Amino acid sequence: MFDDNFKMDKTAFSICTFEEAAEQDKAYWLSKTPQVRLAALEYMRQMLYGYDPDTARIQRILTVVEPA
Questions:
Q1: Which of 14, 16, 36, 67 could cross-link 32 (Cys pair, CB 3.0–4.6 Å)?
Q2: Residue 27 Cα distances to 3, 36, 41, angstroms
Q3: How far apart are CA 2 and CA 46, in angstroms?
Q4: Residue 60's Cα: distance from chain center in Å?
Q5: CA-to-CA distance for 5 and 43, rounded, in angstroms?
Q6: 0.70 surpassed by pTM
Q7: Closest Cα to residue 43, out of 7, 18, 13?
């Protein structure tokens, strides 16, 4: 669904510490608009859990409770 919007730059390469990488990641995402951040979050969610339009709605299960 979102594959056309997100591409990985496989030519970029840098060596840094984990702390520097975390700072760079934070600066990168703070430079993006909230809409872009949410789109990226949704893309990652779909990559992790899969996308199934049949389960896009929340299931409602009704249970009848009889008074004792």
A1: 36
A2: 24, 14, 16
A3: 9
A4: 25
A5: 10
A6: no
A7: 7
Question: Which residues form the domain of 55?
Answer: 1-6+15-68
DSSP secondary structure string, 35-64?
Answer: HHHHHHHHHHHHHHH---GGG-SPP-----
9: nearest Cα among 28, 27, 26:
28
User: Token pair 């949704």 is at which residue?
Assistant: 42
Amino acid (1-letter code) at residue 53:
P
Residue 51 has a pLDDT of 75
What would the two tokens of residue 31 be? 């430079």
